[in-house]
Amino acid sequence: MKKRAIVAVIVLLLIGLDQLVKSYIVQQIPLGEVRSWIPN
Question: What proportion of the chain, given as a percentage, has pLDDT over 70?
Answer without folding.
Answer: 78
